[in-house]
Amino acid sequence: MTKIPTTQNLLKPLFSEILAWIYPPLCSACKMIIPIQERFHREIYLCETCALLLEPIGGIICTVCGKPRETVTSLDKTMLSGDDAMNGTACCEDDYVCKDCRARHHHFAANRAAFIYDGILKDMMHDMKFRARRTVAEGLGRYWAHLIVQEKVSLPCTITDSCVLVPLPMHVQKVKQRGYNQAEILSLQLSKHLGIPTQEVLFRIKNTAPQSGLHPAARAENVNGVFKINPKTFDASKQYIIIDDIYTTGASLNECAKTLKNAGAANIYCMTTAITVKFNKGILL
Ligand SMILES: [Zn+2]
Ligand SMILES: [Zn+2]
User: Fold this and answer.
1) Ligand of minimum distance to the alpha carbon of 108
2) Residue 63 to residues 9, 69, 136, 216, 224: CA-CA distances in angstroms?
3) What's the number of domains the chain is made of?
């Protein structure tokens, strides 16, 4: 059925144009005004220069968590050229599984991250979480979706009609404090541009200490039993993809996956904007 455009729908883009002219969008990274001719970059709140610094993960990655192979260094990546496996979209050659994933049991089948948590992305994510900069999440979500469409960022599974995106839930108290759940904003942007629905399938029933201040070994314990299924939306036959901003040890994602699995879901995956890696003097270990 063809939608008849309403006056409100027709005025919406015009209103956004006027608003962008009065308050020009600033780059989330360098905080400079993004030139008017850079329309796409205005939509992702990243100037052209900073967007180029945000390079998607390429080369051989862990088949489980999506982390780049430990032996691949930044130096290797710049020295190799052409269509070598180190360049372009991430791939899972040799069924490589990283040390962390060999040591842990995951309730999800795979995670795929778009970027390494480093450089300008660290500052952007800090602004997004602690300075209530909602536009950073909106821009990153949109850019992430764009890179998936361009096949520069891989997905954890084949997308089917039964796929549902599940933002990692934040406790209601924390949502009140921050004003939003960044995982939900990221997920809604992915939904909008990839056509996969976002649903609130999980609740967070305990307000726990932030994972970032905890030792890796304490993270799993900190989130144990904190999530609950939403019976109104849960459907065991769906293919769930849990969405979050950063993958560190994967403890929160794993607990979400465990909750979905215990309720009967069989196909569980994760997608994160970034993943942490260990560096030594600027070289990926
Ligand atoms: Zn910039
Ligand atoms: Zn791994």
Assistant:
1) 2
2) 44, 10, 29, 21, 25
3) 1
pLDDT digits (tens, 9 = 90+) for 190-244: 999 999 999 999 999 988 777 777 777 788 878 888 999 999 999 999 999 999 9
99 in a structural domain: yes
Decide if 21 is inside a domain: no
Task: With respect to residue 3, please indicate whether it lies within any of the assigned structural domains.
Answer: no
Of the listed ligands, the closest to the CA of 46 is 1
Q: Is 34 domain-assigned?
A: no
Question: Ligand 1 center to residue 121 CA distance, Å?
Answer: 11
The domain that contains 196 carries what CATH number? 3.40.50
Ligand nearest to the CA of 139: 1
Give dist(CA 157, CA 161) in Å, integer: 12
pTM for the full predicted model:
0.85
pLDDT given at position 70: 65
